[in-house]
Amino acid sequence: MDAIHRHTIALLRKLESLSSLAPEEKAALLRLPLRLKAVAAHQDIVREGDAPTECCLLVEGFACRYNVTALGKRQILSFHISGDIIDLQGLHLSVMDHSVATLVPSRLAFIQHDDLRALMRDHPRIGNLFWRDTLIDAAMFRQWTLNVGRRQAPARMAHVLCELLVRLRTVELVEDQVFDLPLTQAELADALGISHVHVNRVLQDLRGQGLISQHGHTLRVLDWKGLKDLGEFDPTYLHLTKREAL
Amino acid sequence: LPRYFFHVLDGYTARDTDGTELPDIYAAQEQAIHISGEILRDMGGKFWNGTEWKLEVTDEHGQSLFVLRFSAEEQPVSLDLRRGSSAS
What is the structure's pLDDT at A4? Predict the structure, then answer.
């Protein structure tokens, strides 16, 4: 039980940030059969056009969803962290319309679609929670679109950092406003829709304003209110029940 | 692929230490315009209060390949107009 628990604990924390879970619902989630896999950085987990028969739970690591233009320009559409079932939509949309890739060495747990269907049949509230989770996913994409379409680069960066901090906090990966941000400037560039040269300038600007500090892959938010104001970040779209996470 | 480095010379921005792999110098020239456009876009109206800045592109050996210069020059009539509008 403990061994299994280790792999689903982040998922439990995440789901509990959206709604409370009854003991039997938690137990059912912990009983899910998992196929564990360690994956190196920068590997595709599922590709556009695939028709997966299982969903991918990110146990530990960092991943993203992306699409690529005909000329090979990549747009990162979202970042994913421990506890995210990254391709939950695959349960209802049989063909992938985007790709999912690891950004750092990651540990994944694959869950058969049939097992998820059985779980939702036996525990309808979990089905509702998964629905809610995919709706919040869509809400995050709406904010992402506004961000890359209409904000200046420093505000884009601030918004993405704010969102990551709040989401990482729900799975207890933030301590004292500090979190691991193991992304390269090229990856941040693909997420924000700007060049890596501009990412470099923007991070320097945020540090210069005293909003953040960086040491290697560790990012510390020095001025949470300032960062939120710059990124126009309002966490309502994340629909978290635990307001203390904000 | 050769690696090109794009240095923003504005007395503020750190030099590009990562560089970008691109097929050839034409692609580097295109990328230089693209980067300059991003910077101008974010500067907006602030560009008028700034001093000249440059984008220098170097190769892997630090050899300078080309430089783009950006500055705004206001003619006396423009300054008069601005003085007029701020006075009113």
Answer: 54
pLDDT, tens digit, for every residue of B71-87? 988 888 887 887 776 55
Q: Could you tell me which of A17, A181, A3, A5 has the C-alpha nearest to residue A84?
A: A17
**What residues of A are in contact with residue B8 (Cβ under 8 Å)?**
197, 201
Q: Rounded to whole angstroms, how far apart are CA atoms B24 and B22?
A: 6
- Which segments in chain B show pLDDT lower than 50? 88
* Interface contact B34, partner A, CB < 8 A: yes
Its pTM stands at 0.90
Q: Considering only the beta carbons, identify the residue of B12, B16, B42 that sits closest to A197.
A: B16
Q: How far apart are the C-alpha atoms of A216 and A220, rounded to whole Å?
A: 11
- Pairs of CB atoms within 8 A across A/B: 36
Give the model's confidence band at A86: pLDDT under 50 very low, under 70 low, under 90 confident, else very high. Answer: very high
